[in-house]
Amino acid sequence: MYKQKLGMNVNPKFGVPLTEQVQLLRRVGFEAFFSGWTAGDQQRELRSAAEGSGMLYRFIHAPFSGLRHLWQDDEQAGEIMDRLFACFDDCAEVRVPLVVMHAYIGFEPAQPTAAGVRYFEKLSDRAKQLGLQIALENTEGEAFLTAVMDDLKEEKHVGFCWDTGHELCYNHGQDMLGKYGDRLFCTHLNDNLGIRDFGGEITFFDDLHLLPFDGIADWQGVAARLDQCGYDDVLMFELLKTPREERREQAIYADMTPEAYFAAAYRAACRAASLRR
Q1: Beta carbons of 209 and 240 less than 8 angstroms apart
Q2: Measured CA angle at 169 (ends 192, 265), to 5 deg
Q3: Does an H or E element contain 178, and which?
């Protein structure tokens, strides 16, 4: 898009091989993508696909399952750290400069601990050694994000990934970009329907990752806030085609082929991007 690079995630649930998704995304108009991480050759194959199609492989999303073990400093913490270090090593090997991370996952009552902060300091140190940046995402457990961001505020390679859908549900509509916009490294742009439960209980199933303008997000406001913080990197969208359990809102995309879905995503992305000044 004129003066604005647009990107989107690849995802095994889209129904075609990830390397083919890179080609399809480029065909419909996207210029960048990101992926999750798995042990093995996936990242190398995606690097080759990126080079073959002229796409920017902007970042890799680190695994987040079990992050609570770092804060509990229990017997599984070492296994979680080994997995994250392996992700970092792969990012460096395939020349992907940025890793997106969660600070926490889970909805049970919990509070940050000094031990957990120390683990994130070790992750920061490893990233710096490898020449990588880390972007921490707004998810559930805002206190954990705050603890890490505050502790590593002097580390220029540690910043923020803004997820617009998470803001609407996990963060109760708080202006997360207002908190961390001066440290914004990347985006996960997507739409949402907010918190479904009348009493305000948040669950994983509130996180829908709809196409822009298919939910309740204020996209004019999203664009204005991005302008206000001077963001000029790729506008990256993180989207889901298939419904999560217990929710059927993505059923409107069910009959679309992957290419048709990506084309619809690109149209929506262009519409969102056009709102910026």
Answers
A1: yes
A2: 25
A3: helix 176-180
Model confidence at 247, pLDDT cuts 50, 70, 90, reads confident
Q: Cβ of 191: how many Cβ atoms within 10 Å?
A: 24
Positive or negative CA dihedral for 194, 196, 200, 203? negative
Structure tokens at 242: 């298939």
How far apart, in whole angstroms, are the C-alpha atoms of residue 120 and residue 215?
Answer: 34
Give me the domains of the chain, ranges plus CATH numbers: 6-273 (3.20.20.150)
E-state strands within 37-191 = 56-61, 98-102, 133-137, 158-163, 184-188
pLDDT (tens digit per residue) in 155-206: 999 999 999 999 999 999 999 999 999 999 999 999 999 999 999 999 999 9
pLDDT (tens digit per residue) in 73-91: 999 999 999 999 999 999 9
Two structure tokens written together for 18: 């990830």
Neighbours of 40 (CB within 10 A): 9
- CA–CA separation, 23 and 49 (whole Å): 7
pLDDT tens digits along 96-112: 999 999 999 999 999 99
210/5 Cα distance (integer angstroms): 20
Helix axes 18-28, 42-53, angle to 10 degrees: 30
Give Cβ neighbours of residue 38 (< 8 Å, ≥ 6 apart): none
Other CB atoms within 10 A of residue 44 CB = 12
Q: Give the model's pLDDT for residue 19.
A: 98
